């Protein structure tokens, strides 16, 4: 109990210092039930060993299941010195855990990514870039965790309780209900053995067909992590990644829909100032719902009680699993006439990209494929 009281007192002290305006950030490795109310946790002093990379996944899954979703492990290991391959794989794994931080003992060698050669630097940069690009998605699933207690990082059996094969799996997981992640945690590996639960519900990569989940699939990843979006889901991602979250917050966004076999998909986006309690005290937030059905993508408010102005706008809409339309039209709910939009369709991958709809991320609108 002392651990949660210590964290609680620190968080409350920071909040009082700002007059109750600013959200505190408190990070601890000592915690108890209820600590999730006061800040983030990490898994403690690990070591630069492949086994420690591997066990970081079930450790965070276990913490998530008991309500502590904001968790992560020291990237690269706190003690000892990671070899280049281990450091790269750890960045790639850590980028898809809720708390993302490189941290090491003062007596270890320097670990700046540019000290490990051009190829490794590029791989680490890409992992970090993907992390920042997905911050709108991360913020939304953490919002749902805050509201409902659902784990942001969850075992497969949470979404597939009828599939007994998933009960013992702790090396692959879902972020929210949408993104399937299987980090590479074995030295020298260039792929992973992935289980795809649910018939036709998981898409391996852009444009790939669904799988029936009756057996493992070999997921070649090369030097990248293995990722897959579930069919029927949608997500938002930053298009131009800035040097920090704040630099990216007013940039354009990409909206992606991954169609089910019945041609439907849905997702949402939660957005606020990311800094104050105004989302709670003044209802200054934006919660948008996106639905694709009947060849029409619609955006509407999921919570009309909230209101938040943002300069962020939609740079492109990407729909996976769509056929080639004759034309694409945008209809805004402000009374303006329909606008015809440019698009590109890749027949070999069934990917439809609609460029520059030019609508604010918080507006209500519909895009029709005709």
UniProtKB/TrEMBL annotation:
<feature type="domain" description="Glycosyl hydrolase family 31 C-terminal">
    <location>
        <begin position="149"/>
        <end position="199"/>
    </location>
</feature>
<protein>
    <recommendedName>
        <fullName>Glucosidase II alpha subunit</fullName>
    </recommendedName>
</protein>
<dbReference type="GO" id="GO:0005975">
    <property type="term" value="P:carbohydrate metabolic process"/>
</dbReference>
<dbReference type="InterPro" id="IPR048395">
    <property type="entry name" value="Glyco_hydro_31_C"/>
</dbReference>
<dbReference type="Pfam" id="PF21365">
    <property type="entry name" value="Glyco_hydro_31_3rd"/>
</dbReference>
<comment type="similarity">
    <text>Belongs to the glycosyl hydrolase 31 family.</text>
</comment>
<dbReference type="GO" id="GO:0004553">
    <property type="term" value="F:hydrolase activity, hydrolyzing O-glycosyl compounds"/>
</dbReference>
<dbReference type="InterPro" id="IPR017853">
    <property type="entry name" value="GH"/>
</dbReference>
<dbReference type="Pfam" id="PF01055">
    <property type="entry name" value="Glyco_hydro_31_2nd"/>
</dbReference>
<keyword id="KW-0378">Hydrolase</keyword>
<dbReference type="InterPro" id="IPR000322">
    <property type="entry name" value="Glyco_hydro_31_TIM"/>
</dbReference>
<dbReference type="InterPro" id="IPR013780">
    <property type="entry name" value="Glyco_hydro_b"/>
</dbReference>
<keyword id="KW-0326">Glycosidase</keyword>
<feature type="domain" description="Glycoside hydrolase family 31 TIM barrel">
    <location>
        <begin position="4"/>
        <end position="140"/>
    </location>
</feature>
């Amino acid at each position: 109990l002392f651990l949660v009281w210590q964290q609680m007192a620190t968080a409350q002290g920071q909040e009082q210092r700002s007059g109750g305006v600013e959200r505190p950030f408190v990070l601890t490795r000592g915690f108890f039930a209820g600590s999730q109310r006061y800040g983030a946790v990490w898994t403690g002093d690990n070591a630069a060993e492949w086994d420690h990379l591997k066990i970081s996944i079930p450790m965070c899954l276990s913490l998530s299941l008991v309500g502590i979703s904001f968790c992560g492990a020291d990237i690269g290991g706190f003690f000892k010195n990671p070899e280049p391959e281990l450091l790269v794989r750890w960045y790639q794994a850590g980028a898809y855990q809720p708390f993302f931080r490189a941290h090491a003992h003062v007596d270890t060698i320097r670990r700046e990514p540019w000290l490990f050669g051009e190829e490794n630097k590029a791989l680490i940069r890409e992992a970090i870039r993907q992390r920042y690009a997905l911050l709108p998605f991360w913020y939304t699933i953490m919002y749902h965790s805050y509201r409902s207690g659902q784990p942001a990082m969850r075992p497969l059996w949470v979404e597939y309780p009828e599939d007994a094969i998933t009960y013992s799996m702790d090396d692959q997981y879902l972020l929210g209900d949408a993104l399937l992640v299987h980090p590479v945690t074995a030295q020298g590996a260039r792929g992973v053995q992935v289980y795809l639960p649910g018939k036709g519900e998981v898409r391996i990569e852009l444009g790939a067909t669904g799988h029936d989940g009756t057996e493992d699939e070999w997921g070649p990843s090369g030097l990248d992590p293995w990722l897959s979006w579930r069919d029927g889901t949608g997500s938002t991602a930053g298009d131009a990644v800035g040097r920090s979250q704040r630099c990216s917050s007013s940039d354009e966004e990409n909206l992606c829909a991954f169609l089910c076999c019945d041609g439907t998909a849905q997702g949402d986006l939660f957005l606020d100032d990311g800094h104050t309690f105004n989302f709670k005290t003044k209802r200054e937030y934006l919660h948008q719902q996106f639905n694709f059905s009947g060849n029409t993508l619609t955006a509407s408010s999921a919570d009309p009680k909230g209101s938040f102005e943002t300069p962020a706008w939609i740079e492109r809409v990407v729909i996976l699993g769509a056929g080639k339309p004759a034309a694409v039209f945008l209809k805004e709910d402000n009374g303006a006439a329909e606008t015809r939009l440019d698009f590109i369709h890749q027949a070999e991958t069934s990917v439809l990209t609609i460029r520059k709809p030019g609508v604010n991320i918080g507006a209500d609108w519909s895009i029709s494929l005709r």
